[in-house]
Amino acid sequence: MSDMLSVFDQPNDGLFFAHLRGSEMHWFFVQGAQALRKDLYIPGVLSLINGIEATLRITIHQLAGKSFNEDLSDYKLLSNTLIKDAGDMGMPIRSLAFPGESDFIANLATTKPNRVDVKIVALRNDICHGNVVPFINRELGEDQLFTPECLRETSQILLSVSKQWVEELSRFRQDTLGLAADGALRPQDRGDFEG
After folding, report:
1. Spatial CB neighbours of 155, under 8 Å, sequence gap ≥ 6
2. Are 95 and 164 in contact (CB under 8 A)?
3. 81-136: per-residue pLDDT in tens?
4. pTM, to two decimals
5. Rounded-to-integer distance, Cα 132 and Cα 116, Å
6. At how many degrees (to 10) do helices 152-177 and 41-63 cross?
7. Residue 12 has what DSSP assignment?
8. 40 — alpha (psi -120 to 50), left (phi > 0) or beta?
9. Helical axes 119-128 vs 80-88, angle rounded to 10°
10. How far is C-alpha 90 from the chain's CA centre?
């Protein structure tokens, strides 16, 4: 656990800027990490989750050949289906698995009525819909209590997952979409490169 506790002390902003220079993606991660450094666990977790969702949606949109000016689908939200679709397009979705989540790929394939959400999706659904029950401190017996600090361990895990996701997604975007780290087309992919 000592490795996890130090995750907030590590500067993360540069990593997110360097790998996802598109402002429509990196700011969620940067502000999420900044919030966590200030012990603002609810906004930090929400921001990181939104960053993961945004990077999935935008990259899928680009892989489908759609321009940046075309609206993203209102219906493709962070879900098992969205992650599975991203994996089918070759995106490095395994990096979204939480530590010890060995059934990640199997759970992505589950369907209603027996669907089992992967942990990132379950976390999104709980936090975005105000369900704090899974995070309540039960150590006090009958006096169960939720405070934002109940999300500390989860936020540390999510920040680590986010870092891994951003690094792997950046490589994927460079290799597949021909995007340089700053989001621009590389010269060899613009058609005007001679070399």
Report:
1. 36, 41, 44, 45, 48
2. yes
3. 999 999 999 999 999 999 999 999 999 999 999 999 999 999 999 999 999 999 98
4. 0.81
5. 19
6. 20
7. -
8. beta
9. 140
10. 16
